[in-house]
Specification:
The complex is a heterodimer of chains A (about 210) and B (about 575). Chain A is built from 6 helices and 7 strands, in the order E-H-E-E-H-E-H-H-E-H-E-H-E. With about 210 residues, chain A is of the alpha/beta class. Chain A has one domain: P-loop containing nucleotide triphosphate hydrolases (Rossmann fold), CATH 3.40.50.300. A 6-stranded mixed sheet of chain A has the order 2-3-1-4-5-6, sandwiched between helices. In chain A, strand 5, helix 5 and strand 6 form a beta-alpha-beta unit. Chain A is globular and about 75 Å long. The relative contact order of chain A is 0.17. By secondary structure, chain B is α+β, with helices and mostly antiparallel strands. Chain B folds into 3 domains: about 200 residues, 2-Layer Sandwich (Beta-Lactamase); about 130 residues, Dynein light chain 2a, cytoplasmic (Beta-Lactamase, 2-Layer Sandwich), CATH 3.30.450.30; about 150 residues, Beta-Lactamase (2-Layer Sandwich). In chain B, the strands form 3 sheets. In chain B, strands 2-1-5-6-7-3-4 form a 7-stranded antiparallel sheet, with helices on both faces. In chain B, a hairpin with a 3-residue loop joins strand 16 and strand 17. The longest helix of chain B has 19 residues. Classes of the chains: A alpha/beta (about 210), B alpha+beta (about 575). At the A-B interface, strand 1, strand 2, strand 3, helix 2 and strand 7 of A face helix 2, strand 4, helix 6, helix 8 and strand 11 of B.
Chain lengths: ~210, ~575
């Protein structure tokens, strides 16, 4: 219940385990990076306030666990997401190939009203590794996939060096907000006394 | 229902309802009681075990270590790093912790004055002088002060978006709100429903209302049923402002951000939450009347009935939280909870005081789906008239009705009598007739003019009533009304009043326990009180005595209280005004 109007955006980060989802989020929110790998359990939640084009947003970032055993969390986590961030590791072909699964899984679970235009964004992370020598997914290949899925914005990032992270999240906020419906239809009824006035007790209302 | 998180093989060790305080945070959090859709209880262990799911991770990482040792002072280390448990309720300004404070006020609910953080409203009459204050908007879940608060309330959407938080800024708490949703949804995914989580002294109570999730985190030791009832009322207050049609917004758009719709209603919620600690109507589900001579109330009722016949659904004349009179159109009846929520809405919204207002409101027990329109006008500082209608263009008609009512009330001296009754207060335990021969003296303190002076002569700061009677509440089941005695020594500050109400609340919950109740009588003695509860078909009596009171004479005194209330019922209750059969 803020006095000034602020927008809260729910952002889900998906991708195989170890691609750097948590690191990206930590770099973005806390400007910190750790080389140590620590698997996310279930999900982690962080909040970040951003100003984009004179509007202030609060990003509620849902950093999910990549391991398959957490996939059952599905619907609960994805419901009401404003944007979905798909992350892969440019040094791992498998993590790139799986983007398709992650995207489809998200669309099934979250079942957004307009799946064609739901705002995704793809991040190719770990471009710093080995000076780029161990890279197996080319930028071209990644961009082609993004283009085939309805022109998903694509960013190459390094959570370790903080490269492109800020820009990527700014794009996330913008896209998520663009997708926001203009006006939410909140049109309550008025009691109609002639039709009985008091509502028939339904199963959901309390007994007394 | 607790479980050892380290051995998932034992999913239902039911024998240990409260985890040992020396356990780790995860272990304490692991005490979860769940409700199947059919309402059966099941013990579930695995949610937090082995770190294999989300909440354990969240709490272990972010929640525990923040409260610093030196702030907690002595005695804190033995409790481990339970950041969750040091929350204390600070209704006023955030009180900085002095090094000498134990920081553990939360441990015992409202304990003695020795513990560092206490209620700061001591000596202030709870309902009269409380003003809704800004709720520490600078706080978030990382703030020590936020963690120390004794009782948090949250409303969030089923996608985890924050809608309301009692303390702190909703947006800053977005991550926390997401955690709450994750816990609820995780359990829901398994076809279950989470009712509460117990973490040391803290209880986390969940209430799911379609797309709206309500959560209370409390270390006040209030029973689960009481906290759940409070969440129900908060939900009702939200419906009063918005109706249940918000659900449709979520159906069409799960992303729907509801918080802007509640803009400017902070004070309404904080005043309701405040009422949980002083207004017995919040757990009795009954309303109370301002004591008035029978003829005075009749005069008010007659003119209200007059306008009700002209197309007004409900006409309600109230003085603060007490009813002077109320009338409903044919077949329309008003639930006490709706009256509580409506009065809270009006009394906490400053704008009603300064102008005549016409506002859409929903009475959730009457019809949660739709709006009524409320015409509200203050006739004097405390007395206000509320006219409810179904017609959105009835403002001028209702204004005329109000002018008519006001004219009659002035002419028949009702408003003067109301003011006088306000000054005199209600029943005082000191006035309890000692025996039947003296009863006649106090039969009608409100009906005769010469009793005017008795108000000032009454020993308001007396030593309680006979047999050590300190206080009582009498609830008439048939009337949906209660009468509560005025507080007197030694229950003379707000902290003590709050503690007594919490004791009553506990008593109420145990008497109405669905598993073992309902019960007829209960006599309980502890270091603070002797509490006596007596429930019959017609009434419920809750009475508090000096802890040294004699049982036999306490029981006798309760009988006399009941007789006294019956003798005065024409003055303290609203009788037969309208069919109040819900």
């Amino acid at each position: 219940m803020a006095s000034r109007r602020r927008t809260l955006l729910k952002v889900i980060i998906l991708g195989d385990s170890g691609v750097g989802k948590t690191s990206l989020m930590n770099q973005y929110v806390n400007r910190k990076f750790s080389n140590q790998y620590k698997a996310t359990i279930g999900a982690d939640f962080l909040t970040k306030e951003v100003q984009v084009e004179d509007r202030s947003f609060t990003l509620q970032i849902w950093d999910t666990a990549g391991q398959e055993r957490f996939q059952s969390l599905g619907v609960a986590f994805y419901r009401g997401a404003d944007c979905c961030v798909l992350v892969y590791d440019v040094n791992s072909m498998k993590s790139f190939d799986n983007l398709n699964n992650w995207r489809e899984e998200f669309l099934i679970q979250a079942s957004p009203s307009d799946p064609e235009n739901f705002p995704f964004i793809v991040l190719g992370n770990k471009i710093d590794v080995d000076g780029g020598n161990s890279r197996v997914v080319s930028e071209k290949k990644a961009k082609a996939w993004c283009a085939s899925k309805g022109n998903i914005p694509y960013f190459e990032t390094s959570a370790k060096e903080g490269f492109n992270v800020e820009a990527a999240f700014e794009c996330i906020a913008k896209n998520a907000f663009k997708n926001e419906p203009e006006e939410n239809m909140y049109l309550p009824n008025t009691v109609d006394v002639t039709a009985g006035g008091r509502q028939q007790r339904s199963a959901s209302s309390c007994e007394c | 229902m607790a479980s050892d998180p380290n051995s998932t093989d034992h999913p239902s060790d039911v024998s240990e309802p409260i985890p040992n305080p020396s356990h780790t945070e995860e272990e304490r959090l692991a005490s979860i009681s769940l409700e199947e859709p059919e309402g059966n209880h099941v013990a579930v262990s695995r949610l937090l075990s082995n770190g294999s799911s989300l909440p354990a991770d969240f709490h272990a990482e972010d929640e525990i270590e923040v409260v610093e040792e030196e702030l907690l002072g002595e005695g804190s280390s033995s409790h481990g790093g339970g950041g969750w448990r040091e929350i204390s309720e600070q209704d006023g300004e955030a009180v900085p912790c002095s090094p000498s404070s134990s920081g553990y006020a939360g441990e015992r609910g409202s304990s003695g004055p020795s513990s560092g953080i206490e209620e700061v409203d001591d000596g202030v009459n709870l309902q009269d002088d409380w003003v809704p204050r800004k709720r520490h908007d600078d706080e978030d879940d990382a703030s020590v002060s936020w963690r120390k608060r004794k009782k948090h309330f949250f409303i969030l959407s089923h996608s985890g978006k924050p809608i309301y938080s009692r303390y702190g800024d909703e947006h800053k708490l977005a991550g926390f709100s997401a955690t709450l949703q994750a816990i609820i949804s995780f359990v829901e995914n398994g076809g279950d429903r989470v009712k509460f989580v117990r973490a040391g002294k803290h209880q986390v109570v969940f209430l799911v209302k379609g797309p709206i999730y309500l959560v209370c985190i409390s270390c006040t030791e209030e029973p689960y049923e009481a906290l759940k009832g409070q969440l129900e009322l908060i939900y009702g207050q939200m419906l009063l402002i918005l109706t249940k049609s918000v659900n449709r917004c979520f159906e069409k758009n799960p992303k729907f951000d509801m918080s802007p719709l509640l803009g400017g209603t902070d004070a309404v919620f904080s005043s309701l939450i405040h009422a949980f600690s002083w207004n017995p109507a919040t757990f009795l589900h009954a309303y109370t009347c301002l004591p008035l001579a029978y003829s005075t109330r009749q005069a008010a009722g007659a003119i209200l009935q007059d306008v009700a016949d002209s197309g007004v659904l409900f006409a309600i004349l109230m003085c603060k939280h007490k009813v002077v009179s109320l009338v409903g159109a044919q077949k329309a009846s008003l639930h006490p909870d709706d009256m509580l929520l409506l009065a809270n809405f009006i009394l906490s919204s400053e704008s009603f005081r300064t102008s005549e207002s016409f506002s859409p409101i929903c009475l959730p027990r009457y019809n949660p789906m739709a709006f009524l329109y409320a015409y509200v006008h203050y006739l004097d500082e405390d007395t206000y008239l509320t006219l409810l209608t179904t017609s959105s263009d009835a403002f001028y008609h209702l204004k005329e009705c109000r002018l008519r009512i006001q004219g009659v009330l002035v002419k028949s001296n009702v408003l003067v009598e109301v003011q006088r009754s306000m000054l005199d207060g209600g029943l005082h335990v000191e006035d309890l007739p000692v025996d039947s021969s003296r009863r006649s003296r106090s039969v009608s303190p409100y009906s005769s003019q010469e009793n005017n002076i008795s108000g000032s002569l009454r020993p308001h700061m007396g030593l309680g009533g006979p047999a050590g009677l300190w206080h009582f509440i009498y609830r008439s089941i048939y009337l949906d009304q209660y009468v509560s005695s005025e507080f007197s020594s030694p229950i003379n500050n707000s902290a003590q009043q709050k503690r007594l109400y919490r004791a009553y609340q506990k008593l109420f919950a145990s008497m109405h326990d669905k598993g073992t109740g309902p019960h007829k009588t209960q006599y309980r003695r502890d270091e603070d009180y002797v509490l006596l509860c007596w429930i019959t078909q017609d009434f419920e009596l809750y009475a508090a005595f000096d802890p040294l009171a004699d049982k036999v004479s306490a029981i006798k005194t309760c009988n006399r209280v009941c007789q006294w209330v019956r003798d005065l019922e024409n003055e303290i209750f609203l009788l037969g005004a309208s069919p109040f059969s819900w």
